[in-house]
Amino acid sequence: MGRRCSCGPETGPNKIAGAGPRDPARCDPRMTFPAPLPSRLGDPRSLNAMIIALGTLALSAAFSQAAPPAPPAPPPAPPTSSRPATGQPAPAPGTTPVPGDGRMVPERSAPNRGTRPVSPGTTAPVATPPAPVAEPPVGDDGMVDGPPPIQAEPAVLDFGYIAPSAESKGTFKLWNRGTKPITVLAIQPSCKCTTTNDLADTQIKPGEFAELEAGLDGAPLPGPRKANIKVLVDGYSRVIELEIKAEVAYPLRAPPGYLNVVKGQEQKGRLFVESIDKKPFRICHVHGEPPEYIGFDPALDAPRSQYLIRWDITKYGDKIPPYWIIVSDREDCPILPIRVRHESTIPRPVFRLKEYSVNLGAMEPGKPIEVVVDMEDPLEPIVAVATDDARLRAELLSTELDNGNLRARIRVTPRPDADGLVTLPLSIYSNSKEMTIPAFGIVRSSGKTGCDG
């Protein structure tokens, strides 16, 4: 560090030879000098240090003459008061007087470092309902030429996979997006497979909704299932159509669920088979023969949840089966029927049946099972059933009407010596008509499971 100069002559070990007394007028008490010079002036290093010290001294003196004297310290500020002093103007809002000269400077507030800055006039986003839909013009008949301002939620009621003959239920929300109340006149399903609750004379206010419950009956056999529901609203010339759909499926599925082998189509191909729950399974046989796998060896590979197999319809000649039957080791899906679409397998309806085939599933020798056949709008009642397959016996147990449909309960009993896959014609009789539909199943002895049966 440097040291302060004194206004008297330099004394002591740091006195420079030949130096006279210092001029008090040129001595600034704020001046500082370098650290003491080395004592050995004969040493070249000491001489260099002395030259540097003299240069520094000259520069310091020059700057001290150019620098103006420091202003005197301001007097202590008077006590603050909420009222201005007499004769002095009141400070403007947002300003502070500078002591000593009466100037006003703007006040500065310290930044808020504890919270994040918020933009003025902004708020968190809030979900708002859609804006009302403008009403279309009204015709001369007083009807609005267009559909009502109804928004269905969901747009499509999709039940996904449903079991055969099972019923699935869901709910639509019918929102009124208009500016006036609307009144539902009627709900019209497109088929008897669909059920709804009654919304007739239900009024829906703007921005509100009504709940429409819808049910869909699954078909006895796999395949896609769709239906529409029409909503009629008072004062509107057009209706709103709602869609419901599902895929009827066993625990195993083979999309699209059929083989299209009509004239002009391929008679050979590949079929993808999978389990819906992704559990491994085995294919025991396909229509009584070992499956032809692609990329899988049952002797080396563990069971999988999906397979790719070959099919060839030409091996059946002119006796093409109406269904290509896949037999698996799954207890909940022993039979997977694949519809064969061919000119010779097209059903020729005599009765209006809900389905034109019967899946008998797994059976045991000598033990009867019960199945149902549904007839829509029956003109004549069913009086008897029979089969010409000697391995099974079929008999009519009862018939009953349900919402205009006839349900026939049928008992099928395998013979004690029956075994393996059975595909048989099932004949249905009325007093004047007869119709034959295919039935299929597998007979397994008691205690046999999987592909052992």
Q: Which descriptors apply to this entry?
A:
453 residues; 1 helix; four-stranded antiparallel sheet; 5% helix; Immunoglobulin-like; mainly beta; five-stranded mixed sheet
Task: Walk me through this protein's architecture.
By secondary structure, this protein is mostly beta strands. Among the domains are: about 150-250, Immunoglobulins (Immunoglobulin-like); about 250-345, Sandwich (Immunoglobulin-like); about 350-453, Immunoglobulins (Immunoglobulin-like, Sandwich). The protein contains 1 helix and 27 strands. The chain is globular.
- Tell me how many strands there are: 27
The helix fraction, in percent, is under 10%
Shape: globular
In CATH's first tier, which class of the domain at 348-453 applies?
Mainly Beta
Order of adjacent strands in the largest pleated sheet: 6-13-12-8-10
Q: So, CATH architecture of the domain at 348-453? A: Sandwich
Measured distance between first and last alpha carbons: 107 Å
User: How much of the residues is beta strand, in percent?
Assistant: 35-45%
Task: Note the run of SSEs as H and E.
Answer: EEHEEEEEEEEEEEEEEEEEEEEEEEEE
Q: Work out the helix count.
A: 1
The CATH superfamily label of the domain at 348-453 reads Immunoglobulins
Integer average pLDDT: 79
Largest sheet: 5 strands, mixed
Which spans of ≥5 residues are poorly predicted at pLDDT below 50? 1-42, 62-67, 78-88, 107-127
The helix/strand class is: mainly beta
Q: What is the name of the CATH topology of the domain at 348-453?
A: Immunoglobulin-like
Taking all Cα atoms into account, the compactness measure Rg is: 50 Å
